[in-house]
């Protein structure tokens, strides 16, 4: 029997390449809301956080945050054609499903933000449980999102593994007592402590299949 029955994925930078869509949509929103033009390079820090946390970090006034997030999401919807599934992901998910693995998602996106991107893609059908920012009080790197997944799925720590591209993803897993894979096929933000490291989705087959 396989060691990991539950294989849980981050979304952005792991399953799908959303970097350009997120950052250019944010840049456009900030021009409108703050009247400032940020360089794309200076906005990359937002990729590992929730949208509301990012608004605080960017100095958006509290009363403007709901409208700013709504505008950011609307811009992403307009720029949806910038998003692509990483090469090898669809094939990997199909093989894991056929093997009998239970696949899930833990993301810093809200439910609305997740549905905006994932529900438009053919890989949505593979995931039985998706934990979003709305589902927990604390977010990555806290263990809460993964613990919530395990609560809903009935998964045990020793049979669960989490795959993500950021240091906060890895910290979330380690804080939950769960093994993790640092996915570096996108553009990872930094080095991170992890159980495994994979440079392309195909390398996950060596771990899980």
From TrEMBL:
Q: Which GO terms describe its biological process?
A: DNA repair
Q: Which domain of life is it from?
A: Bacteria
One GO CC annotation: cytosol
Query: What is the uppermost EC class here?
Result: hydrolase
Recite the UniProt keywords alphabetically: Hydrolase
* Keyword Transferase found: no
EC no. given is 3.6.1.1
Molecular function GO terms recorded? inorganic diphosphate phosphatase activity; phosphoglycolate phosphatase activity
Protein name per UniProt: HAD family hydrolase
Q: Which organism is it from?
A: [Ruminococcus] torques
Q: Which gene encodes it?
A: ppaX
